[in-house]
From TrEMBL:
Pfam families: Lys_Orn_oxgnase. Pathway: Siderophore biosynthesis. InterPro entries: FAD/NAD-bd_sf, Lys/Orn_oxygenase. Its cofactor is FAD. The lineage of its organism: Bacteria, Bacillati, Actinomycetota, Actinomycetes, Kitasatosporales. Keywords: FAD, Flavoprotein, Monooxygenase, NADP, Oxidoreductase. It comes from Streptomyces variegatus. This is L-lysine N6-monooxygenase MbtG.
Length: 470
């Protein structure tokens, strides 16, 4: 029997999850102790991996360890980070290490531990289409089972009452550099692939890092630390006008709370778009400790006289780019405030240009006739993270980490994932599978503070919930 199929192939699932990143993994972990829920999660990758190309030694999460998959909703869950440490007999070493922010590699290992022990997760399964079957009042989810080489091995179909999308983000490459990234043999790569090419980059005579956010800073620092003093030959540039620290004040961080999410969702669409554009420093700045580490390393290299051969230039955009001969890359740069232009010749380019939400249209093409869209033709998503569909569709499609336009910059935040998962589970079960706080911030966003009241929902066809944690 295909392990991704129910024992009865005609029996509908309660929920099919598409994608197994931190968002859907959080949902799967919080759904695990709830009896009566038949769930399955698919991911086309062979195994779990959380930004593997950026697991640079020493790089840390930008959120505390409590922002694991479950703790901020259910700290008693068996899937907490602390329980992971306990299972590895590492709880005392962690206690004495006094680390509030853990390394990225440790967070990745924790998520892998959850994947290894949590049932209902199926890697190597690529979801090809989602359709609504009005005759059965169910969604049809078509998938391809892949072999270890990523080749199609078998086709399958699952019927489900509900779907949750957690397909995450994809690397963003600016248009001027797309031809270089796509050309074979040209040493231009996205930061997502950094570790795979680190040895070649360290061997290159001159390396340029484009993008002055957190990943750009970590990559520049890693290259700097491993280049000989006086022969660094590094250039770090980006469009932002300064090497700006990330907003990390206590009240500033309250914009990553459910209270702010509710406030944001209730605003008019044009207002929401303006707010998102102005909140870049909440997630695109550089951690203050990383900025300090870069400066410390540059300063250390001046102790015996001279300056490191490293250029740091903010406020610069790449207009065009091309190859010089066969091994060099030429970047045509423009400085906005100076209104000046120049050319930079380099041997390799790392694009620390961030990520963008994966568009939902491809995987939801079969639901297009039922979808409601906003003025920018983006899917409308309600407060409970549900796609707004035609009323004839009695099932629900939930959305995770693809709703920045409706829920704000907190959509991809790891700390909000457990709260969003609990919202989805409460909506799915028609009850209060998880009790959620009425208030989460000292700040009152707006003249009145909205409290979340779940909409009335007809009791779903589920087995009564059994909470065996108590």
């Amino acid at each position: 029997m295909n392990p991704a199929q129910s024992p009865d192939p005609d029996a509908p699932r309660d929920l099919v999850g598409i994608g197994i990143g931190p968002a859907n993994l959080s949902l799967a972990a919080l759904a695990d102790p709830l009896g009566g829920l038949d769930t399955v999660f698919y991911d086309q990758r062979p195994t779990f991996g959380w930004h593997p190309g950026l697991l640079i030694d020493g790089a840390t999460l930008q959120v505390p360890f409590l922002a694991d998959l479950v703790s901020l909703t259910d700290p008693t869950s068996p899937w907490t980070f602390l329980n992971y440490l306990r299972s590895r007999e590492r709880l005392f070493p962690f206690y004495f290490a006094e680390r509030f922010h853990i390394q990225r590699a440790e967070y990745d290992a924790y998520c892998r531990w959850v994947c290894d022990n949590l049932p209902g997760l199926h890697f190597g399964h690529q979801v090809d289409a989602v359709r609504w079957n009005p005759e059965r009042d169910l969604f049809e989810v078509d998938f391809t089972q892949l072999d270890t080489d990523g080749e199609a091995e078998a086709l399958g179909r699952t019927h489900t009452r509900n779907v949750v999308l957690g397909i995450g983000t994809e690397p963003y490459v600016p248009d001027p550099l797309k031809p270089l990234v796509e050309a074979p043999g040209v040493p231009v790569l996205h930061a997502a692939d950094y570790l795979d090419h680190r040895a070649a980059l360290l061997a290159a005579e001159h390396v340029t890092v484009v993008g002055i956010g957190q990943s750009g800073a970590e990559i520049f620092l890693d290259l700097l630390r491993n280049k000989p003093a006086g022969r660094e030959k590094l250039h770090w540039l980006g469009r932002t006008e300064a090497f700006t620290p990330m907003e990390y004040s206590k009240l500033g961080l309250e914009q990553f709370t459910p209270d702010h999410t509710r406030y944001f969702h209730a605003l008019p669409e044009p207002t929401r778009d303006r707010i998102v554009d102005g909140q870049w420093q909440l997630h695109k700045g550089i951690d203050a400790a990383t900025i300090a580490a870069v400066h410390d390393e540059l300063y250390r290299r001046t102790l015996h006289g001279g300056w490191p051969d490293a250029v740091l230039t903010p406020g610069v955009r790449v207009r065009t780019a091309g190859r010089v001969a066969t091994t060099k890359i030429e970047l045509h740069l423009e400085h906005g405030r100076q209104d000046s232009r120049s050319r930079l010749t380099t041997d390799a380019v790392v694009l620390a240009t961030g990520y963008r939400e994966r568009p939902l249209d491809r995987i939801l093409a079969g639901l297009d006739p039922y979808m409601r869209r906003d003025n920018q033709e983006r899917p409308r998503i309600d407060e409970d993270h549900r796609l707004v569909l035609d009323p004839s569709v009695t099932g629900t499609v939930y959305v995770q980490n693809a709703e920045t336009h409706t829920h704000g910059v907190g959509a991809p935040d790891l700390g909000l994932a457990p709260w969003r998962s609990a919202l989805i589970l409460n909506s799915l079960t028609g009850g209060e599978a998880y009790a959620l706080p009425a208030r989460t911030a000292f700040t009152t966003f707006g003249l009145t503070q909205r409290r979340h009241v779940p909409p009335p929902r007809e009791a779903p066809a589920l087995t009564p919930l059994v909470d065996d944690r108590r």
